[in-house]
């Protein structure tokens, strides 16, 4: 098949949507399919174009057999509202036009969020007169409202109308968890038009490894118990809970525990400044790191923290960090009730806490730090469950079957 995939994010960006798109597409190429990805110049999350790239009208490259077309966008950091909307809209326009340069595809896939990437898929599918498969990894605009990024009811109503029209324009929708399926059902999308293909473990990258002692030394963590958070440090993450927990450990004199925050995002500078103001020497900000280094950071971690702000909407989400921890056999402290928490519980892979509850976070960390055998048991259980149910190769095959059905519909 000839697949045209529209994604706002793509490697060398290392966030969850970039990784999911890349890992699926490269597997489809290996099976003989022709895959083209339309994306922008890599700049997430700081709005600074990566070294070796330019924000120009067109750049073509081939990555592991995937034809990649990079288009010019209004580059903006992953924070604030107005400039990010310009960034999203500019991608929608540029990607829609770039789709015309691609030979007639059999199917177009567009991944949302961001919301207007989905609309680029709507436009491109109408231009090519081929079916659209819409991938939903977050429910917009509710997720914007959940972090108070947009407060205007008029704007929200407009976005909601566009959301429903986008769903109606797609021949089929793929989403990453059952919670999203229920949300889409409640919005009027028929069950037969929805498939669930979850995120999974890329076993070529994430597998149990011994701790990297050189990295431990470089970070200055010594032999302390490391609780790591890796990923976008954004408004939805609620990571001020880490600072409050770190204060508690400092008051207790627990200098054997350290929090490691790996990544960047809209609130990273704010959190780091607050940690410095509080003189928290048990919180380390490692900044944005190449995706290839993530296994090493997880390997030195006693536990992996997966956390989001406390809001009903986030009970439907399924953070990809869970699967990375599964693959590395790391125990999980899960502060995301609902679908994500249920998954970790089924796997027997971690300790659950209420989101934004620093007291429970302290208790969970102390429990794990004081019981290496428990950490080993939880990590191994997550690994076994993840390999059995969430292997990326198998999930890519499942996704490909959905694509084949959608392409045949036309």
Task: Please name the defining characteristics of this protein.
410 residues; Rossmann fold; 15 helices; 17% strand
Short description:
This protein has 410 residues and is α/β, with parallel strands linked by helices. It contains 15 helices and 14 strands. It has an 8-stranded mixed β-sheet, sandwiched between helices.
Protein model, in words:
The protein has 410 residues and is an alpha/beta fold. The protein folds into two domains: 218 residues, Glycogen Phosphorylase B (Rossmann fold, 3-Layer(aba) Sandwich), CATH 3.40.50.2000; 177 residues, Glycogen Phosphorylase B (Rossmann fold). 43% of the residues lie in helices and 17% in strands. The chain is built from 15 helices and 14 strands. The strands form two sheets. It has an eight-stranded mixed β-sheet, with helices on both faces. The protein has a six-stranded parallel β-sheet with strand order 11-10-9-12-13-14, with helices on both faces. Helix 8 crosses helix 13. The protein starts with a strand and ends with a helix. The model has no long low-confidence stretch (mean pLDDT 93).
